[in-house]
Structure formats: C-alpha cells, structure tokens
C-alpha cells in the first residue's frame, strides 16, 4: 500500500469515528487496532502493538503529570488560590485596571498549576468578569486578560501539558519545562504592557474606585503570608530543575508535598478537599495516559506502514525554506485548534510534526515550545477558538461574540510577538536549558 493510502486509512478512520461522537482517545485506539490488523499481520500484530503501547506507559517521564495535576487540584480545592487572588488584589491598591492585573498575575498562577486552559478560563470568567463588570470595567478589560492567561499557563513550569508533549515527542521533559521560563516572563511583560497601554488610551475602560488603605507593614504581611509561599513554591521547583539538583519527576513530587504542607499550615486541608483533589487529578491522569498509549501506537503504525517516511519525503520535496515549513505547521495547529482540544491535537500532530521538524534541522526543545504556543493561540483564535465559546458561556448577559473576539486580539498579538522573537532569537528558549 502506498504511503498516502496508509495515511489516509489511519487518519480517515479517526476522523469518521470522531464525527460520529466517539471520544478522541478511543477513536485513536480503534484506528490503531485496524491499522495493526492491516499492516502488521492481523491478530499477532494487534498483540504486538498493544504490548508496545503498554510499554510506553511505564516510562519514568510520565510521573510528573499526576503530581503536577495534584498540585493544581489542591491549590484550587483548599482555597489557596483564592487567598493569593485576594492578596494580589489588595496589594495593588488604586492602580488603574488593577483587577485586570490581578487576573493575569493570579490567573497565571492558578492555570499553570491546573494544567487546563478550559477549566481555568471557566473559573476565572465566572469569578472575575462579574466583579469587573460591577466595577465598571469595559469588556475588553475583563475578558481579554482571562483569555490571555492560558498562553502563560502552558509554557511557564510547572506545566502538565508541557510534560505530556515532551513525553509524546520523546524529548527531555526538564529541558522543555525550563525552556518556557524566559519566553513566559516576556509574554507576561507583554500582557502587563497591553493592559497599561489600554488604561492610558482609555482611562474609563477601568474606572478607579476607593479601596482600603494598607500600611507598609500590612502590605508586607499580606505579601509574605498569602503570595510568597505559593509563588515561591513554583520558583523553587524551577530553580531545582535548572540547577540539576532534581529531575522533573522529583520536582513534581516536592511540589505536591509543598502544596500539601502549605494547605495544612493555613488550616484549609480537609478530608473533603483532599478527596476532591485526588479524584480530579486521577480523572485527568487516566485520560492523559490513554492519550500516551494511543499516540505511541499511532506513531509506530505510521512508521511501520511507511506513512511517516513518505510524508516527510513529500513535504521536504517542495524545497521550501525551513521557516516557511514551520509557518505551515503553525497554521495547521491554529486551524485544528478551532475544532479540537489541545491534547487531541497533540495526539494527531506530534507523530508527524516532530520527525519533520528534525528533518528540517529544528532543535526539538525549541520546536516543542513553538508548538505549545501555537496550541494555546489556536484556542483563542476567532471565529471558532474553543476558549472563546467557554468565555461566552460564563460571561454576563449582553456579552456578544464580537466583544469576545475583539478582547482576544491584543493578547493573541502578544503571543505571536513572542513566537516571532523565538524564531529570530532561538536562544531565548535554549539558553536556560543549556545552563543545566
């Protein structure tokens, strides 16, 4: 069978099964079984493929996923996240647009740990948008920063999605996590600069209002009690990995233990919150492991059938510049993001894009970071980005899709600027991992 026929059979089966409502992971599993029957000799091929798939789940690189997810669940269910939000809000005082800054700073902390852009958007939308609307904020000042926080959450460690991508692509998990630090800080600066510029251009977009005045001592107490412990935990995890003191798996274990200790110290760790945290982390972990199983077997089928080799040969046969091919792959990710969830996109594209990126001479860590940013941008790209519809669902009555589209555009441009900087200056992503 020609490579394009093999690729069409595998991808076509997945698309048809998803179109009839089958979950993505199960659609991949069914397509893999069909492919093994056709390309690997029937029942013995299916047995071999399943054995290989289970082998992919025993890798030590997958350990950080449940631990990072557990961190986020404890952070949310114990109320530590709410403490940090409230503290940042009070510390910013009468700063124009302060609730927008609170959304970016506090929301990044929460969504980084939670690992779910859709969940974070829903939570922040229902929590912050009504408050900002009541304070007279215009829609672009309330909706835009919430949509923007996902871009930070996906690249600043600890990021469960980055761990999953590194595992699927078989690249260094720690290096990909660390690579996101500098671009993430640059993106945060762009977001803050965007909010500042919006308040300067239109002061009425975020009206000032009276807040409780705090003394220097009260500010310091609030900072060191409710902000430093939570932010400090993430900083310590990053520096432990950068210094080579711990592996990503060990860093994740220390992080989960740290959040437990903080919750106990603040006397907000209850049996109910612990149970909800473990169940929430377990649900997402099982889904992630099923995704890894499907991706590993799908990659093997692509290679065994000759589809990977044929596709790479076809794509490189156009003799396009590597940057042009990168932009094509970036555009494909943006289009897929209008219809599919991030993990599903990774499952579909990683087995194809990473071998192609290697063939084009791209550093796999750098390309992984570009791909993470593309996935997040695709989630907020009009007209069909999934986060736009999540935001519509939690926004106050009277918020139109046009309002949400216009709110998202400045923050999409910020993310695109970071992608452009990474293309021009790859060292922004590669310098820090190289120091380890």
Radius of gyration (CA) equals: 22 Å
The overall strand count is 0
**Poorly predicted ranges:** none
- Beta-strand portion reads under 5%
What's the story with the biggest beta sheet? none
Class based on secondary structure composition and strand pairing: mainly alpha
Shape: globular
Mean pLDDT: 81
Number of helices: 21
The N- to C-terminal Cα distance equals 46 Å
Share in helix: over 70%
What's the SSE pattern? HHHHHHHHHHHHHHHHHHHHH
Tell me about this structure:
The chain contains 21 helices and no strands. The chain has helices at residues 3-19, 24-39, 43-56, 64-77, 80-91, 98-114, 117-134, 139-153, 160-169, 173-179, 181-201, 216-242, 248-265, 271-305, 307-316, 322-337, 342-359, 364-379, 386-394, 401-424, 427-434. The protein is mainly alpha-helical and 436 residues long. Helix 4 runs antiparallel to helix 9 (160-169), helix 4 (64-77) runs antiparallel to helix 14 (271-305) and helix 6 (98-114) packs antiparallel against helix 7.
Quick rundown:
The chain is built from 21 helices and no strands.
What attributes does this structure have?
globular, single chain, 436 residues, 78% helix, mainly alpha
Which helices and strands appear, and what pairs or packs with what?
Layout: H1 3-19, H2 24-39, H3 43-56, H4 64-77, H5 80-91, H6 98-114, H7 117-134, H8 139-153, H9 160-169, H10 173-179, H11 181-201, H12 216-242, H13 248-265, H14 271-305, H15 307-316, H16 322-337, H17 342-359, H18 364-379, H19 386-394, H20 401-424, H21 427-434
